[in-house]
Amino acid sequence: MIREKLKKYFSDRSFKEVNLHTPDMNLFYVSSGDAASLVWIVSEAAMGPMDKTAYDRYYEKIRSSFLQRNFVYVNILTVFTTGECKKAAELAKGTAFWIADEKYGRLVVYEDQPEDFCGCKRHIEQLLSFFTEDLKREEEIRRREEEERLRRQLYEEQARAAHEAGNGFSGMRRKRRKAETPYAVIALIAVNVLVLFLVNLFGGVLGIGSWLSDGAVSWMDVIDGGEYYRLFTCMFLHAGIDHIMGNMIVLYAAGEILERNVGHIKFLIIYILGGLAGAVTSCCFYYSQHEYVESIGASGAVFAVVGGLVMCLVVNKESLAEVSYVRILLFAFYALYSGFISQGTDNAAHVGGLIGGGIVYLVIFIGTKLARKVYKPRK
Q: Would you state the torsion angle of the CA atoms of residues 57, 59, 61, 67, taken in this order, to the nearest 10 degrees?
């Protein structure tokens, strides 16, 4: 929810939170001398039973409580997190307010309202923009999963009908279902989550809290220090829940399709070698820039999966007729673009992983075709 992101933003900006004893509203303030600036966050759930009288009563109660603390100047900005702009404007009439409309990713500021408040307007607008992009991405993933579920259901119904008709189609059905469960993807997600819990939750107890620094990849440690193991360990380390969440969602969305079409072992090869390619690219890039950067995260390997899937579509599209060619290409482009516009993102690893994954898939594809020609099955 955008309210949680707003809470974190104001907390990070040294605003102090006041407990309002309600789960649907939050109050933050910052003071300077005898002046206090307050941000009152009101959720859509809190707006439901609230009328103008209740709003004014609550507003005055907050203002009075700060005047009693010997503050002479008390400025209050109400931030409604809702899409019901008209109701919010009616409630807050006569007071300063903004509306954070998370549905459309916009900050609504009426003409008679303050253009800025403690310099936070631009940051809140960015928060809303990123939040909306995340919602759209999650919605797209859910839509693709639903389409895939319906496709599988239709396929199984056709296979069942063909089997009952006795046309020999059931053998294809059994072969197709063999790789239906993405065991490798599930295992990789489990390993990444397990490592996150070990390092971030139990690191101090188990003595492994230094894994983040000891396992991160950087050109100085790899090239100068000869610590090549970092190229591998960095793929399984994450800074926190937010960091791992996006990687694992993309891994499942793209990896499930790729693994189902290439098999478990080949998928793991693409993931590991492509991830190594991303780490190597990161080291080489920042070495050429003479910039010291420590990098962790599975995004290089995840991009390798996306690159493998793109290459799979390019060279063998007929086996992936159920997957939208344009959709996968747009997905890969959007993933790269999101990395370039985000701060603190190792884009070199993303590009290296994407290209590396595509090359590894192509090598496996060509090698498999050559092996089939050389080792023809006996009749």
A: -140
What is the tally of structural domains in the chain?
A: 2
Query: Could you tell me the pLDDT band of residue 280, with boundaries at 50, 70 and 90?
Result: very high
Query: Can you give the pLDDT at residue 330?
Result: 66
Q: What CA–CA distance (Å, rounded) separates 276 from 312?
A: 20
Tokens 């009075």 correspond to 64
Owner of token pair 């992009």: 133
232 with 309, same domain: the answer is yes
Of 311, 305, 310, whose CA–CA distance to 353 is shortest? 305
User: Which residue is associated with the tokens 């396992």?
Assistant: 215
From CA 357, how far away is CA 332, in angstroms rounded? 12
149, part of any domain: no
Q: Of the residues 100, 128, 156, which one is the last residue of a structural domain? A: 128
3-state SS class at 43: strand
Same domain assignment for residues 68 and 186? no
Helix (H) or strand (E) segment spanning residue 343:
none
Residue 147 in any domain: the answer is no
Compute the mean pLDDT over every residue in the chain, rounded to the nearest whole number.
81
Q: Are 304 and 353 in contact (CB under 8 A)?
A: yes
Domain assignment of residue 23, given as a range: 2-128
Dihedral, CA of residue 279, residue 282, residue 288 and residue 294, to nearest 10: -100
Q: Are residues 213 and 83 in the same domain?
A: no
Is residue 326 a part of any domain in this protein?
yes
